[in-house]
Amino acid sequence: MEDKTAHLEIEDFLMAEGFVSSEEMAEARGIRKTHIEQSKKQLGFILLGQKKITQEQLKKLLFLQEMQWQMGKRAVEKGMLSQEQLEEGQRQVKQSGHSLSRFLVKKGYLSDMDRKKLVYEQLDTLFLVKLAVKHRLIQEGDLESVLKLKHYKKSTCEILYEQNRVTLSELNLAFRRFSRDLKLGQILLQQALIHEADLEKALALQSAAHKALGKILLENKWVALDQLYFALSIQYNTPFQKLDGYIYYEKQKIELRSIIGQRYACEHQILPLFWNGDNLTLAVSNPARIWSMQDLKSRHPSIQMTCVL
User: Do both 130 and 279 map to the same domain?
Assistant: First the structure.
């Protein structure tokens, strides 16, 4: 069960302290509600809703041979027809080019109701979306976007942060009000980003395997990477900087190497991002490595340094 009480208390605290207005909170909650409603739709309908494909293209996907073969395989697994009946149907439609599922219905091997159930099931499969990529109906980026919408439900506070309604410092203050030690698991619970039962499983695995909690959560797909880093950014009061598509220019490389060598960067797991002559922005993959910045500051006392995750 999600800790909804704590989640709502934090939202109320943000409003009570004047960090966000009731209107801004209502807007963020509305966005979250919309995200949740959209995530309940089948992947095929999400593609339609985002206008990534048309109804005609979706229909064609469902009647492609790869998809028909997949539905036939699922029908056998579900006991709707035998392997022999499936193979007979495959032989026949290879010659005629007709729909396998319709052939199986026509032969009486599969009921029309079962055929419709199979189609409905395939509308919500990764196989369908990958097939759309394979046939160049959508791009790889579209696949990631659809899957993220399906499985990654942003918290209200995360939405407020993305809309620049609150800062990480303000969120950090709110969480300290309810979680003295700001433990990662508590933040995820209070943000409704993980179920309590899954967190308990993760903590048990952590105790047995002596791994970092975040790594266990990712390995078991209990949270998405963005969700983990959002929680860590609150825990360590450090901004989360996405680096998708980030490119270094040659001049940047030369300037950054003059401050941080490759060996030092690898050893301390830090990545210099921006240098404007006065301020250096560093990315750290592990927030526990933020202490490395203190060593750099002692080496370059005249440079202001900022860390991001």
Answer: no
Kindly report the pTM of this predicted structure: 0.55
Give residue 26's pLDDT. 92
Same domain, 16 and 83: no
Strand partners, 281: 274, 306
Number of alpha carbons in the 13 Å side-chain half-sphere of residue 143: 16
Domain count, the chain: 3
**In order along the chain (309 residues), what is the average pLDDT of each group of 10 residues?**
48 82 92 86 89 92 91 91 91 83 90 91 90 90 80 78 81 64 76 84 85 86 84 75 66 74 77 74 71 67 73
Instruction: Give start and end residues of each alpha helix (H) in 20-111.
Output: 22-39, 43-49, 55-63, 65-77, 83-96, 100-106
Are residues 116 and 264 both part of a single domain? no
Q: Which helix (H) or strand (E) holds 5?
A: helix 4-16
> Which residues are bridge partners to 282 per DSSP?
272, 307
For the record, the structure tokens of 96 come out as 């005629």
Alpha-carbon span 265 to 256, nearest angstrom: 11
64 and 126 housed in the same domain: yes
